[in-house]
Amino acid sequence: MKKSIVILGVFFSSLAYVQAQTATPKVSDKQKNQTVRIKEGVRTGELTRGEAAAMAKDQKELKRMKRRTKADGVVTRKERALLHKKANSNSKKIYRQKND
């Protein structure tokens, strides 16, 4: 009986640990893709160096946001949503600048 209680305790505590992760793979993938899009835009002439610098600043801000949200060891749904919102905003800016 004691063994099963201990096993259940370990199981449920590991579930809590798995749910409280700091991984943000989708945001990281978006960041990598956006960096490539910015470099490609400069290479093809769709973006000026000034526009690219402004977008790089936005990318740095997203990176800072990511670091701050991970600092406490847990990325909540709200924090994750804010990261996605910022990444999507950056993506729209890149699209608009490349296509104006």
Automatic annotation (TrEMBL):
<keyword id="KW-0732">Signal</keyword>
<feature type="signal peptide">
    <location>
        <begin position="1"/>
        <end position="22"/>
    </location>
</feature>
<protein>
    <submittedName>
        <fullName>Uncharacterized protein</fullName>
    </submittedName>
</protein>
<feature type="region of interest" description="Disordered">
    <location>
        <begin position="48"/>
        <end position="76"/>
    </location>
</feature>
